[in-house]
Amino acid sequence: MSGEQTASVPPTDRVQIFDTTLRDGEQSPGISLNTEEKVEIAEQLGRLSVDVIEAGFPITSPGDFEAVQAIARAVEGPVICGLARTHKADIDAAWNAIRDSERPRIHTFISTSDIHIEHQLQTDREDVKGQARAAVALARSLCEDVEFSPMDATRADVEFTAEVCAIAVAEGAGVINIPDTVGYTTPEEYTRYLRRLYELVPGLEDVTLSVHCHDDLGLAVANSYAGLLAGARQVECAVNGIGERAGNCSLEEIVMLLRTRRGEHGLDTEVDARELARTSRMVSRRTGYVIQPNKAIVGRNAFAHESGIHQDGVLKERTTYEIMDPTTVGLESNSIVLGKHSGRHALRDALEQLGFKVEGGALNQAFKRFKEIADKKKQVTALDLEAIVSDEMRERTDSYGLAWFEVEAGSRREPNARVAIRIPSGEESVGQASGDGPVDAIFGAIRDAVEADSELRSYTVSAVTEGEDALGEVTVMLHAHGRLASGQGVATDILEASARAYVRALSNALDGAAVREAEGLTADAAQLPTTPGP
Amino acid sequence: MSGEQTASVPPTDRVQIFDTTLRDGEQSPGISLNTEEKVEIAEQLGRLSVDVIEAGFPITSPGDFEAVQAIARAVEGPVICGLARTHKADIDAAWNAIRDSERPRIHTFISTSDIHIEHQLQTDREDVKGQARAAVALARSLCEDVEFSPMDATRADVEFTAEVCAIAVAEGAGVINIPDTVGYTTPEEYTRYLRRLYELVPGLEDVTLSVHCHDDLGLAVANSYAGLLAGARQVECAVNGIGERAGNCSLEEIVMLLRTRRGEHGLDTEVDARELARTSRMVSRRTGYVIQPNKAIVGRNAFAHESGIHQDGVLKERTTYEIMDPTTVGLESNSIVLGKHSGRHALRDALEQLGFKVEGGALNQAFKRFKEIADKKKQVTALDLEAIVSDEMRERTDSYGLAWFEVEAGSRREPNARVAIRIPSGEESVGQASGDGPVDAIFGAIRDAVEADSELRSYTVSAVTEGEDALGEVTVMLHAHGRLASGQGVATDILEASARAYVRALSNALDGAAVREAEGLTADAAQLPTTPGP
Q1: How many angstroms separate the CA atoms of A446 and B281, rounded?
Q2: What is the least distance, in Å, from the CA of A145 to any CA of chain B?
Q3: Does residue B443 surpass a pLDDT of 70?
Q4: How distant is the Cα of A382 from the closest Cα of chain B, in angstroms?
Q5: CB spacing of B222 vs A253 below 8 angstroms
Q6: Chain B interface, mutation test: which of A214, A284, A494, most B Cβ atoms within 10 Å?
Q7: With contacts defined as CB-CB under 8 Å, which chain B residues touch A219?
Q8: Nearest chain A Cα distance for residue B388, angstroms
Q9: Closest chain A residue to the Cα of B474, Cα to Cα
Q10: What is the mean pLDDT of residues A307-327?
Q11: Which of A60, A307, A411 sits opposite B496 (nearest CB)?
């Protein structure tokens, strides 16, 4: 870009959404998604019509490789991208994981900041240039679509970063992504940085410039937006803004910012915004990461005018206090209500309307669960169905299962629990424990039944819908078998939901442990990454 | 401002923090703080060294008036501000509520956008000018320090807004605040708007320009920052970013943005950042509004590098992935640990270190509670003490109390609960119920005991600290006596915490109902506000 803004703006006003929920988001502490769950989220991202799904970092573990491969095979529409350091082993693993996609992309990165080069990579600038050149060339020999990121670019010397980017462009990278890896930059500074790159990097105007911003100072959305105004046409973001530390640019916020202010700048994405609310709920449920009530776009209050003094203006004229219509992001748009007399056919239709294809044995199982809950709840809404089906999908992949439990508690006695667990052999194992409270007693009884050591790290409960007979959803994060793992459970009974969640978290920890054992065999050869990525 | 940025920048680089947690934040659905809790939060804001506390909107209810007055009398240091529409009754109420403060401020506002003028105020521009002139003149006749806000300014004609602001300046307003009431503007647009105001409003460079931004599009912090770069020297914000809809600019984010990037722009506040984490926890606990793990600065993961691949870089050199030291915002800085053998003296010292002055009967009560919990938990940490003392402080203000409860539950039987409630007369009333789960049964038994109708709206549980024997903290939001109210409870037993939270929410609903009954008598005379404020 040579001074004039227009010179650098690509002919199109279409912004590409690059979703990194399953890569940067999934690296958050305590998130442990299995392959089935990752595919489910990727399919929902497809319905949302994102342009690129960064499905994982295949070299990091056999589990990650398997998940990226499954997504590449199952999800049609978006580009499927795998992350790789500049090492040959990383790039080979990324390519092997994504090659079955109709539209594969390899994303390779290396830091250009001196602080990373010195302390993280323990090398020098010349070596970084050589690694970038070799990596992009290798990736291009395998795959047409290659993206390159100079990690920690915003804290790096812009001249050196430009040299490295010029090498990547010369070697055939079609996307150059400029990450604010530590969430340090500001809109003006980022704008200056990107404009300077347009001046320094030959051919940058012929490739797609991309932005990847972290939210450590609360500026991820604003910095991404500034980057788009400076000429970028891809934004890397994650659902609910999850990701390393304070997370990434929130997908729903940047999408609705562009759409709501489209008249101002002319930019827009092809995202189907009506899927935003559901995508947000799915990711929150699968990751166990709650959404605060005042979160923009998808928080419980984002559109709320509950108290009397607020409703007045909204009732007089909606636009008085609302700049977006909640139905455009998929809130308040679904009126599915089933009851205890609804049949299997009605359930299947309702689930289809929600985007779940459930047939055969899975439908029978879901119907059984639906009936149990419909007996207790007067109305089963779309939100309830989502939670039930999500819960059932988890059930099928568990190593352990909850058979039954019973508990006695109160303020005048020590709580006591008995729990029966179905173990992988098919038998039931019964455990018993007392504790500080009934949940503690149940968790103790589970540990007694499965004879496992584990330490609870966090425990959260929320209600799926409003009202007295709401379903409770419990998320447990625990440390077992040398790793953090989380599990969720849904039930009208909070103790049952807690027991389910704990049993699942234990199952996930065991699965993870098995994967890591397999990894142990190849760890040296693969030189496992010690960097979190952009 | 006449083109050159330097001309408009005030001589000082000191940014004033105007905290509106207790006004805009407290207007969020389901938040119901009583006077004692508001004073507690205001005192903590004093320890945080904010410059201005907007303590409430005194005309809206006798309860709000009483709370603002109590804060004006109790809290030394910050300016204490009361909000008022342009009506005489509002301004009189605001002045009467704050006049006992050493540093009182009246904040009056009226909309300048045509959409608000037409639909909300149902008047015309000339009338708005007249109302603004009269209101600022009246306020100045009562109070030296007067702030004026043209509500919905960012969607209003800038020329008209400038005319109204010029009137306010001419009448003696010392602070002109430009609200982005609906969270619609962007950093460049807001910058242009403020620069144009500097050109159009005579004397604007001699008063303090203020920014007030909402987060509907995820830009509240960035817009506030842009406003400061354009010459504003006061930023209106709320702890945890709470407030109408998606909330206000987050106090902790703008404070740490300014401090971390101080070298870039030279601006800073006088906030004691080491109090940020505690302030955030207090507001989250009192309001029942959870903080998502990836929230910047105060989220559980904001500084986290838990997984192996992240720790590597951090261990090699902290600045590789961290731009802020967690201890500077008050995280990981407290090492208080008490156990079951700690005495009353140790408890009092620990509480003092945490900023709680607890003496006499309150200390005895806190010590009793501490002993009960220390019997169950090996270590009682600073976070636990905060939760226990917060819980005890609530107890003293409740109309109802939990005497005892017992429950039997399991997957093979219907849960059943018995609960005894201490009613205001001092007697115990016992209720019994079954339900969908043990919590549902307990809530039913409470309703049975107090013979009250209420509907549960939300229910959340979180752990105060990590580990197996963590304290559970339950927040209940319910609808009773025609209003939303919330309550919290803390215990090692989740069922006990749930029962406490429900009983408190009911107490709060009753208190609120009593206040509203008193209001009914004066509602016509006071012309209760139908606008939420800036």
Answers
A1: 32
A2: 27
A3: yes
A4: 17
A5: no
A6: A494
A7: 221-222, 225, 257
A8: 16
A9: A461
A10: 63
A11: A411
Q: Which of A261, A530, A532 sits opposite B186 (nearest CB)?
A: A261
Interface contact A312-B466, CB threshold 8 A: no
Q: How far apart are the first and last CA of chain B?
A: 24
Q: Check: CB of residue A148 under 8 Å from CB of residue A179.
A: no
Where is pLDDT greater, at A270 or A480? A270
Residue A203 DSSP class? T
Paired tokens of A528: 């496992």
Report the gap between the CA of B523 and the closest CA in chain A (Å): 13
- Of the candidates B496, B471, B474, B472, the one whose C-alpha atom is nearest the C-alpha of residue B486 is B474
Contact call for B459 and A463, based on CB within 8 A: yes
Q: What is the pLDDT of residues B227-277, one digit of tens each?
A: 999 999 999 999 999 998 999 999 999 999 999 999 888 999 999 999 999
pLDDT in tens, A476-515: 888 888 777 778 888 878 889 899 999 988 887 877 655 5
Beta strands (DSSP E) in B186-251 are: 208-213, 234-237
Token pair in block for residue A180: 């604010």
Chain A residues with CB-CB distance to B27 below 8 A:
307, 309-310
Q: Which of A291, A304, A405 has its CB closest to that of B292?
A: A291
Strand partners, B19: B53, B237
Distance, in Å, from the CA atom of B165 to the CA atom of B150, rounded to the nearest integer, reads 7
pLDDT of residue B316: 58
Three-class DSSP category at A244:
coil
User: What is the nearest CA distance from A310 to chain B, expressed in angstroms?
Assistant: 6
List the single residue in A with minimal CA-CA distance to B61: A309
Question: What's the alpha-carbon Rg for chain A, to the nearest Å?
Answer: 25
Query: From the CA of A369, how many Å to the nearest CA of chain B?
Result: 14
Range among B23-37, B206-220, B288-302 rated most confident: B206-220
Residue B230's CB is within 10 A of a number of other CB atoms, namely 23
**Residue numbers in A near B292 (CB within 8 A):** 240, 289-292, 295
At CA A523, angle to CA A518 and CA A524, rounded to 5? 145
Q: What is the pLDDT of residue B512?
A: 63
The pLDDT of residue A310 is above 50: no
Query: Would you say residue B53 has pLDDT above 70?
Result: yes
Distances from the Cα of B166 to the Cαs of B136, B163, B172, B201, in angstroms?
11, 5, 10, 5
Of the spans A483-497, B164-178, B469-483, which averages the highest pLDDT?
B164-178
The residue of chain B with its CA nearest to that of A403 is B411
Predicted confidence at residue B9, as pLDDT, reads 36
| Whole-number pLDDT of residue B520 | 46
Token pair belonging to A476: 């447990």
Range in A18-27, B303-312, B326-335, B455-464 with the lowest mean pLDDT: B303-312
Of A222, A306, A458, the CB nearest to B222: A222
Q: Which helix (H) or strand (E) holds B111?
A: strand B104-111
pLDDT of residue A395: 62
**Residue written as token pair 């508990």:** A407
- What token pair was written down for B302? 């904001």
With left for phi above 0 and alpha for psi between -120 and 50, is residue B155 left, alpha or beta? Answer: alpha
- Dig out the tokens for A181 from the structure: 């890896």
**A120 to chain B: nearest residue by CA?**
B313
Closest to B461 measured CA to CA, from B450, B472, B477, B445: B472
Q: Which positions in chain A touch B491 (Cβ < 8 Å)?
A: 437
ipTM of the complex: 0.83
Helix, strand or coil for residue B16? Answer: strand
Per-residue tokens: B520: 């009914």
